[in-house]
Amino acid sequence: MNSDVLGLVNLQAEQDDLEALTFFRSGGSLPFMGRYRLIDFTLTNMSYSGIKTVGVFAGNKFRSLLDHLSRKEDFGFEGRNSRVFVLPPDWNDPSDISEGDLKHFHNHSDLFARFKGKHVLVAGSQFITNTNYKKAIAHHKAQNNDITFISERRPEYNIPSAPMLKLLTEGDEITGFTNDRENNHVYTDVYIIKKDVLLDIVRTCIDNYKPNLFHNGIREKLDEFRTGFYDIEATTYYFHSVQSYFKNSMSLLEKDRYRAFFHGENLVKTKISTNPPTLYKKDSDVKSSILANGVIVEGSIESSVISRNVTVKKGATVKNSVIFASCTIEPGAYVENVILDKGVTITEGRKLIGSEDKPYIVAKRSTI
Description:
The chain has 368 residues and is α/β, with parallel strands linked by helices. It folds into two domains: 5-262, Alpha-Beta Complex (Spore Coat Polysaccharide Biosynthesis Protein SpsA, Chain A); 279-362, UDP N-Acetylglucosamine Acyltransferase, domain 1, CATH 2.160.10.10. Helices cover 21% and strands 27% of the residues. It is built from nine helices and 28 strands. Strand 9 and strand 10 (173-178) form a beta hairpin. It is elongated and about 65 Å long.
Protein backbone atom coordinates (compact mmCIF):
# COMPACT_ATOMS: atom_id res chain seq x y z
CA MET A 1 0.00 0.00 0.00
CA ASN A 2 1.27 3.47 -0.91
CA SER A 3 -1.35 5.64 0.76
CA ASP A 4 1.47 8.01 1.77
CA VAL A 5 1.99 8.86 -1.94
CA LEU A 6 -0.17 11.46 -3.67
CA GLY A 7 -0.85 10.83 -7.35
CA LEU A 8 -0.75 13.96 -9.52
CA VAL A 9 -1.78 13.91 -13.19
CA ASN A 10 -0.45 17.15 -14.66
CA LEU A 11 -2.17 17.64 -18.02
CA GLN A 12 -1.39 21.36 -18.07
CA ALA A 13 2.33 20.74 -18.60
CA GLU A 14 1.90 18.61 -21.72
CA GLN A 15 2.93 19.74 -25.18
CA ASP A 16 -0.18 19.91 -27.36
CA ASP A 17 0.72 19.00 -30.94
CA LEU A 18 -2.29 16.80 -31.65
CA GLU A 19 -3.94 19.46 -33.83
CA ALA A 20 -7.69 19.00 -34.40
CA LEU A 21 -7.82 16.01 -32.05
CA THR A 22 -7.43 18.30 -29.04
CA PHE A 23 -9.36 21.37 -30.22
CA PHE A 24 -12.27 20.41 -27.94
CA ARG A 25 -10.57 18.23 -25.32
CA SER A 26 -7.41 17.87 -23.30
CA GLY A 27 -4.81 15.33 -24.37
CA GLY A 28 -5.79 13.13 -21.43
CA SER A 29 -9.36 12.94 -22.77
CA LEU A 30 -8.27 11.74 -26.21
CA PRO A 31 -10.04 8.46 -27.11
CA PHE A 32 -7.80 5.47 -27.78
CA MET A 33 -8.39 1.93 -29.05
CA GLY A 34 -12.17 2.19 -29.14
CA ARG A 35 -13.11 2.38 -25.47
CA TYR A 36 -10.30 4.07 -23.55
CA ARG A 37 -8.94 7.59 -23.07
CA LEU A 38 -5.25 8.30 -22.60
CA ILE A 39 -5.68 9.29 -18.95
CA ASP A 40 -7.09 5.82 -18.19
CA PHE A 41 -3.63 4.29 -18.36
CA THR A 42 -2.14 6.80 -15.94
CA LEU A 43 -4.97 6.35 -13.44
CA THR A 44 -4.89 2.56 -13.77
CA ASN A 45 -1.17 2.49 -13.02
CA MET A 46 -1.66 4.70 -9.96
CA SER A 47 -4.54 2.56 -8.72
CA TYR A 48 -2.54 -0.67 -9.03
CA SER A 49 0.37 1.05 -7.29
CA GLY A 50 -1.70 1.37 -4.12
CA ILE A 51 -2.12 5.14 -4.40
CA LYS A 52 -5.37 6.27 -2.77
CA THR A 53 -5.51 10.02 -3.48
CA VAL A 54 -5.12 11.53 -6.96
CA GLY A 55 -5.35 15.10 -8.17
CA VAL A 56 -5.82 15.85 -11.87
CA PHE A 57 -4.65 19.26 -13.13
CA ALA A 58 -7.18 19.40 -15.93
CA GLY A 59 -6.06 22.42 -17.95
CA ASN A 60 -8.54 24.64 -19.79
CA LYS A 61 -10.48 22.04 -21.81
CA PHE A 62 -11.84 19.95 -18.96
CA ARG A 63 -15.54 19.34 -19.71
CA SER A 64 -15.16 15.85 -21.20
CA LEU A 65 -12.68 14.98 -18.47
CA LEU A 66 -15.18 15.83 -15.72
CA ASP A 67 -17.71 13.49 -17.30
CA HIS A 68 -15.23 10.69 -17.90
CA LEU A 69 -13.87 10.74 -14.33
CA SER A 70 -17.25 11.14 -12.62
CA ARG A 71 -16.96 7.72 -10.90
CA LYS A 72 -13.63 7.05 -9.19
CA GLU A 73 -14.62 3.41 -8.63
CA ASP A 74 -14.44 2.76 -12.38
CA PHE A 75 -10.68 3.34 -12.16
CA GLY A 76 -10.06 1.17 -9.09
CA PHE A 77 -10.25 3.91 -6.45
CA GLU A 78 -12.74 2.22 -4.15
CA GLY A 79 -13.71 2.89 -0.56
CA ARG A 80 -14.15 5.97 1.60
CA ASN A 81 -10.43 6.71 1.78
CA SER A 82 -9.91 6.85 -1.99
CA ARG A 83 -10.31 10.17 -3.78
CA VAL A 84 -9.89 11.50 -7.32
CA PHE A 85 -10.01 15.30 -7.60
CA VAL A 86 -10.41 16.90 -11.04
CA LEU A 87 -8.97 20.39 -10.60
CA PRO A 88 -9.68 23.03 -13.31
CA PRO A 89 -7.74 26.30 -13.26
CA ASP A 90 -8.92 29.22 -11.13
CA TRP A 91 -9.03 32.40 -13.23
CA ASN A 92 -10.36 34.64 -10.45
CA ASP A 93 -7.53 34.94 -7.92
CA PRO A 94 -6.38 38.61 -7.99
CA SER A 95 -3.27 37.79 -5.93
CA ASP A 96 -2.05 35.12 -8.34
CA ILE A 97 1.20 35.97 -10.16
CA SER A 98 1.92 32.40 -11.27
CA GLU A 99 2.04 31.25 -14.89
CA GLY A 100 1.90 28.00 -16.86
CA ASP A 101 1.35 24.79 -14.91
CA LEU A 102 2.56 26.56 -11.76
CA LYS A 103 -0.79 28.37 -11.73
CA HIS A 104 -2.42 25.02 -10.94
CA PHE A 105 0.00 24.36 -8.09
CA HIS A 106 -0.75 27.81 -6.68
CA ASN A 107 -4.53 27.60 -7.16
CA HIS A 108 -4.76 24.13 -5.65
CA SER A 109 -2.18 24.34 -2.87
CA ASP A 110 -4.77 23.00 -0.42
CA LEU A 111 -4.51 19.60 -2.15
CA PHE A 112 -0.94 19.30 -0.88
CA ALA A 113 -1.64 20.93 2.49
CA ARG A 114 -4.39 18.45 3.32
CA PHE A 115 -2.49 15.39 2.12
CA LYS A 116 -0.50 13.99 5.04
CA GLY A 117 1.87 11.78 3.05
CA LYS A 118 5.47 12.68 2.24
CA HIS A 119 5.73 11.83 -1.47
CA VAL A 120 4.08 12.74 -4.78
CA LEU A 121 4.06 10.69 -8.00
CA VAL A 122 3.71 13.11 -10.93
CA ALA A 123 2.65 11.84 -14.37
CA GLY A 124 1.00 13.02 -17.58
CA SER A 125 -0.91 11.22 -20.30
CA GLN A 126 1.37 11.48 -23.35
CA PHE A 127 3.35 8.39 -22.36
CA ILE A 128 1.08 5.42 -21.70
CA THR A 129 2.09 2.05 -20.32
CA ASN A 130 0.59 -0.86 -18.41
CA THR A 131 2.50 -1.27 -15.16
CA ASN A 132 2.51 -0.30 -11.51
CA TYR A 133 5.02 1.80 -9.64
CA LYS A 134 5.26 -0.14 -6.37
CA LYS A 135 8.90 -1.13 -6.92
CA ALA A 136 9.81 2.35 -8.15
CA ILE A 137 8.25 3.94 -5.06
CA ALA A 138 10.05 1.49 -2.77
CA HIS A 139 13.33 2.28 -4.57
CA HIS A 140 12.71 6.03 -4.21
CA LYS A 141 12.15 5.69 -0.47
CA ALA A 142 15.06 3.29 0.09
CA GLN A 143 17.49 5.59 -1.73
CA ASN A 144 16.10 8.65 0.10
CA ASN A 145 16.03 10.52 -3.21
CA ASP A 146 14.55 13.97 -3.53
CA ILE A 147 13.41 13.02 -7.04
CA THR A 148 13.34 9.64 -8.80
CA PHE A 149 12.69 9.69 -12.56
CA ILE A 150 10.85 6.75 -14.15
CA SER A 151 12.56 5.61 -17.33
CA GLU A 152 12.67 2.88 -19.95
CA ARG A 153 15.48 1.52 -22.11
CA ARG A 154 14.31 0.97 -25.69
CA PRO A 155 16.64 1.32 -28.70
CA GLU A 156 13.68 1.40 -31.08
CA TYR A 157 12.65 4.74 -29.60
CA ASN A 158 15.18 6.53 -31.85
CA ILE A 159 12.45 8.44 -33.71
CA PRO A 160 13.73 11.64 -35.38
CA SER A 161 10.47 13.58 -35.05
CA ALA A 162 9.81 12.72 -31.40
CA PRO A 163 10.67 15.54 -28.97
CA MET A 164 11.29 13.14 -26.09
CA LEU A 165 13.89 13.53 -23.36
CA LYS A 166 16.56 10.95 -22.52
CA LEU A 167 18.44 10.63 -19.23
CA LEU A 168 22.12 11.36 -18.73
CA THR A 169 23.42 9.41 -15.75
CA GLU A 170 26.48 8.83 -13.60
CA GLY A 171 26.03 5.71 -11.53
CA ASP A 172 22.61 5.97 -9.90
CA GLU A 173 22.31 9.75 -10.30
CA ILE A 174 20.83 11.90 -13.05
CA THR A 175 23.21 14.52 -14.42
CA GLY A 176 20.95 15.95 -17.11
CA PHE A 177 18.58 15.39 -20.02
CA THR A 178 19.25 15.16 -23.73
CA ASN A 179 17.46 14.77 -27.07
CA ASP A 180 20.32 12.67 -28.45
CA ARG A 181 18.85 10.03 -30.79
CA GLU A 182 21.62 7.59 -29.89
CA ASN A 183 20.62 7.64 -26.22
CA ASN A 184 18.04 4.91 -25.51
CA HIS A 185 17.39 5.77 -21.84
CA VAL A 186 13.96 7.35 -22.25
CA TYR A 187 12.37 9.54 -19.58
CA THR A 188 8.67 8.64 -19.43
CA ASP A 189 7.35 11.95 -18.03
CA VAL A 190 6.82 10.29 -14.64
CA TYR A 191 8.73 11.12 -11.48
CA ILE A 192 8.42 10.60 -7.73
CA ILE A 193 9.31 13.56 -5.55
CA LYS A 194 9.29 14.39 -1.86
CA LYS A 195 6.30 16.62 -1.17
CA ASP A 196 8.34 19.19 0.76
CA VAL A 197 10.85 19.40 -2.09
CA LEU A 198 8.04 19.85 -4.62
CA LEU A 199 6.45 22.68 -2.65
CA ASP A 200 9.82 24.43 -2.24
CA ILE A 201 10.33 24.26 -6.02
CA VAL A 202 6.84 25.65 -6.65
CA ARG A 203 7.40 28.60 -4.31
CA THR A 204 10.81 29.40 -5.81
CA CYS A 205 9.50 29.27 -9.38
CA ILE A 206 6.51 31.50 -8.64
CA ASP A 207 8.65 34.02 -6.74
CA ASN A 208 10.94 34.24 -9.77
CA TYR A 209 8.12 34.42 -12.36
CA LYS A 210 8.95 31.05 -13.92
CA PRO A 211 6.14 29.32 -15.89
CA ASN A 212 7.08 25.62 -15.92
CA LEU A 213 7.66 23.37 -12.93
CA PHE A 214 9.68 20.66 -14.65
CA HIS A 215 11.83 22.72 -16.99
CA ASN A 216 12.42 25.76 -14.75
CA GLY A 217 12.22 24.19 -11.32
CA ILE A 218 13.72 20.74 -11.82
CA ARG A 219 15.66 20.41 -15.07
CA GLU A 220 17.50 23.75 -14.73
CA LYS A 221 18.27 23.12 -11.03
CA LEU A 222 19.01 19.40 -11.22
CA ASP A 223 22.34 19.57 -9.37
CA GLU A 224 20.58 20.97 -6.29
CA PHE A 225 18.70 17.71 -5.65
CA ARG A 226 19.49 14.14 -4.73
CA THR A 227 18.25 12.36 -7.86
CA GLY A 228 17.92 8.82 -9.14
CA PHE A 229 16.09 6.79 -11.74
CA TYR A 230 14.12 3.58 -11.96
CA ASP A 231 13.78 1.60 -15.19
CA ILE A 232 10.37 0.00 -15.70
CA GLU A 233 10.08 -3.27 -17.59
CA ALA A 234 7.06 -2.40 -19.69
CA THR A 235 6.38 -1.12 -23.17
CA THR A 236 5.43 2.55 -23.43
CA TYR A 237 3.68 4.38 -26.25
CA TYR A 238 4.33 8.08 -26.78
CA PHE A 239 1.77 10.54 -28.21
CA HIS A 240 3.38 13.72 -29.48
CA SER A 241 1.59 14.28 -32.80
CA VAL A 242 -1.30 13.14 -34.96
CA GLN A 243 1.11 10.83 -36.76
CA SER A 244 2.22 9.15 -33.53
CA TYR A 245 -1.41 8.75 -32.41
CA PHE A 246 -2.32 7.08 -35.70
CA LYS A 247 0.81 4.91 -35.75
CA ASN A 248 0.25 3.69 -32.18
CA SER A 249 -3.38 2.88 -32.94
CA MET A 250 -2.48 0.85 -36.03
CA SER A 251 0.40 -0.86 -34.21
CA LEU A 252 -1.85 -2.17 -31.45
CA LEU A 253 -4.16 -3.82 -33.98
CA GLU A 254 -1.54 -6.57 -34.15
CA LYS A 255 -2.84 -9.38 -31.92
CA ASP A 256 0.39 -10.10 -30.06
CA ARG A 257 1.04 -6.44 -29.28
CA TYR A 258 -2.54 -5.88 -28.18
CA ARG A 259 -2.53 -8.87 -25.84
CA ALA A 260 0.87 -8.00 -24.39
CA PHE A 261 -0.23 -4.44 -23.67
CA PHE A 262 -3.86 -4.74 -22.60
CA HIS A 263 -3.73 -8.22 -21.03
CA GLY A 264 -0.39 -7.70 -19.32
CA GLU A 265 0.31 -6.81 -15.71
CA ASN A 266 -2.94 -4.90 -15.14
CA LEU A 267 -6.43 -4.85 -16.56
CA VAL A 268 -6.72 -1.30 -17.93
CA LYS A 269 -9.67 0.43 -16.30
CA THR A 270 -12.01 2.96 -17.88
CA LYS A 271 -15.45 4.47 -17.45
CA ILE A 272 -18.04 1.70 -17.40
CA SER A 273 -20.41 1.77 -20.36
CA THR A 274 -23.85 0.17 -20.69
CA ASN A 275 -23.93 0.03 -24.50
CA PRO A 276 -25.29 -3.15 -26.12
CA PRO A 277 -22.92 -5.56 -27.89
CA THR A 278 -21.76 -4.84 -31.43
CA LEU A 279 -24.32 -5.88 -34.05
CA TYR A 280 -22.95 -7.54 -37.19
CA LYS A 281 -25.67 -7.54 -39.83
CA LYS A 282 -25.97 -9.73 -42.90
CA ASP A 283 -23.24 -9.07 -45.50
CA SER A 284 -21.04 -7.23 -42.98
CA ASP A 285 -17.32 -7.96 -43.35
CA VAL A 286 -14.85 -7.17 -40.53
CA LYS A 287 -11.13 -8.02 -40.57
CA SER A 288 -8.25 -7.26 -38.18
CA SER A 289 -10.15 -4.53 -36.34
CA ILE A 290 -11.21 -3.52 -32.85
CA LEU A 291 -14.85 -2.59 -32.35
CA ALA A 292 -16.33 -1.21 -29.14
CA ASN A 293 -19.86 -1.88 -27.88
CA GLY A 294 -22.85 -0.28 -29.53
CA VAL A 295 -21.46 -0.48 -33.08
CA ILE A 296 -23.77 -1.48 -35.95
CA VAL A 297 -21.99 -2.96 -38.98
CA GLU A 298 -23.60 -3.53 -42.36
CA GLY A 299 -20.59 -2.66 -44.52
CA SER A 300 -16.88 -3.52 -44.59
CA ILE A 301 -14.24 -2.73 -41.94
CA GLU A 302 -10.56 -3.63 -42.23
CA SER A 303 -7.59 -2.83 -39.95
CA SER A 304 -9.47 -0.10 -38.10
CA VAL A 305 -10.40 1.05 -34.60
CA ILE A 306 -14.11 1.72 -34.13
CA SER A 307 -15.44 3.45 -31.01
CA ARG A 308 -18.86 3.13 -29.36
CA ASN A 309 -22.16 3.76 -31.18
CA VAL A 310 -20.69 3.97 -34.68
CA THR A 311 -22.82 2.90 -37.65
CA VAL A 312 -21.21 1.60 -40.85
CA LYS A 313 -24.02 1.21 -43.37
CA LYS A 314 -24.41 -1.22 -46.24
CA GLY A 315 -21.85 -0.78 -49.00
CA ALA A 316 -19.65 1.53 -46.89
CA THR A 317 -15.95 0.72 -46.43
CA VAL A 318 -13.65 1.69 -43.56
CA LYS A 319 -9.97 0.79 -43.98
CA ASN A 320 -6.88 1.61 -41.88
CA SER A 321 -8.83 4.25 -39.96
CA VAL A 322 -9.73 5.40 -36.46
CA ILE A 323 -13.40 6.24 -35.95
CA PHE A 324 -14.45 8.04 -32.75
CA ALA A 325 -17.81 7.56 -31.02
CA SER A 326 -21.22 8.22 -32.59
CA CYS A 327 -20.03 8.52 -36.21
CA THR A 328 -22.12 7.41 -39.19
CA ILE A 329 -20.67 6.12 -42.46
CA GLU A 330 -23.47 6.24 -45.03
CA PRO A 331 -24.00 3.68 -47.84
CA GLY A 332 -21.28 3.56 -50.48
CA ALA A 333 -18.90 5.86 -48.58
CA TYR A 334 -15.19 4.95 -48.50
CA VAL A 335 -12.65 6.08 -45.88
CA GLU A 336 -9.00 5.02 -45.73
CA ASN A 337 -6.20 6.32 -43.49
CA VAL A 338 -8.70 8.67 -41.86
CA ILE A 339 -9.43 9.82 -38.30
CA LEU A 340 -13.07 10.79 -37.75
CA ASP A 341 -13.68 12.76 -34.56
CA LYS A 342 -16.83 12.25 -32.49
CA GLY A 343 -20.21 12.64 -34.15
CA VAL A 344 -19.01 12.88 -37.77
CA THR A 345 -21.25 11.86 -40.67
CA ILE A 346 -19.76 10.77 -44.00
CA THR A 347 -22.54 11.07 -46.55
CA GLU A 348 -23.51 8.55 -49.18
CA GLY A 349 -20.89 7.85 -51.83
CA ARG A 350 -18.21 10.18 -50.41
CA LYS A 351 -14.58 9.06 -50.57
CA LEU A 352 -11.88 10.23 -48.11
CA ILE A 353 -8.32 8.95 -48.43
CA GLY A 354 -5.34 10.05 -46.36
CA SER A 355 -1.93 8.46 -46.01
CA GLU A 356 -0.24 6.48 -43.25
CA ASP A 357 2.17 9.37 -42.63
CA LYS A 358 -0.54 12.03 -42.75
CA PRO A 359 -4.00 10.68 -41.94
CA TYR A 360 -6.98 12.78 -43.02
CA ILE A 361 -8.74 14.28 -39.96
CA VAL A 362 -12.41 15.23 -39.92
CA ALA A 363 -13.30 17.59 -37.06
CA LYS A 364 -15.90 16.85 -34.40
CA ARG A 365 -19.58 16.87 -35.45
CA SER A 366 -18.78 17.60 -39.11
CA THR A 367 -20.81 16.35 -42.07
CA ILE A 368 -18.98 15.60 -45.30
